[in-house]
Amino acid sequence: MKLRNREGTAVDPVPFLVVTGVAFAIAYSYGPLYFAALGLPIGYGVAVSTALFLAATAGTYYRLVWTHRPVRREEVPVGERFERLVLATVACVGVVALLALPLAM
């Protein structure tokens, strides 16, 4: 798969595919059950989950492909990138834990 940013430079597709895959897994594993717990029928829950997944995919494409600048990696120090990775991991674990709360009660 050859992805190009808005300047025509080739972009590594792996980050986009990983984030999109995680968005798919979260949207369809939590979404319909979460919305059913809130009183929506399963069909509507799947439709809302699909809309959220498509919005997440569009945002991911815009951030990781369309506006990607390969030179930026050289501008940001390694320590700062690692700190952002750790904070993003903690945030994702927290979001998954919060999503699981209504299902556990």
Automatic annotation (TrEMBL):
<feature type="transmembrane region" description="Helical">
    <location>
        <begin position="12"/>
        <end position="30"/>
    </location>
</feature>
<protein>
    <submittedName>
        <fullName>Uncharacterized protein</fullName>
    </submittedName>
</protein>
<keyword id="KW-1133">Transmembrane helix</keyword>
<keyword id="KW-0812">Transmembrane</keyword>
<feature type="transmembrane region" description="Helical">
    <location>
        <begin position="42"/>
        <end position="64"/>
    </location>
</feature>
<keyword id="KW-0472">Membrane</keyword>
<feature type="transmembrane region" description="Helical">
    <location>
        <begin position="85"/>
        <end position="104"/>
    </location>
</feature>
